[in-house]
Amino acid sequence: KKNVIISLGGGSIINDEIRKKLAFNSITLFLNTNLIELEKRLKKSINRPILKNINIKKKLNELDKKRRKYYLLSDITIENNNNTLNDLHENFIKKLSIMHGKKIKN
Question: Is the whole-model pTM more than 0.85?
Fold first, then answer.
């Protein structure tokens, strides 16, 4: 399919084959959230099997060490700590416009 948005699980990026496909077929976006904010958000989550019955802060640090180098290869990085959804949207459109050298309408 063309012109779709796909949200991958955080661990997907460590798979070589997935990274190759993303590099060839996609524009990648990294929503960069600091670990303190992530910990606050994830403490309430019941849908994250990798974080069940463990020290969330320690696990986030481990995962970040393995994954961050790949996340930072994304085409677009947006800071995502205390932003509203509208802020994220505007920032994405702005960076996408710069990337393509033209104004993109919202």
Answer: no
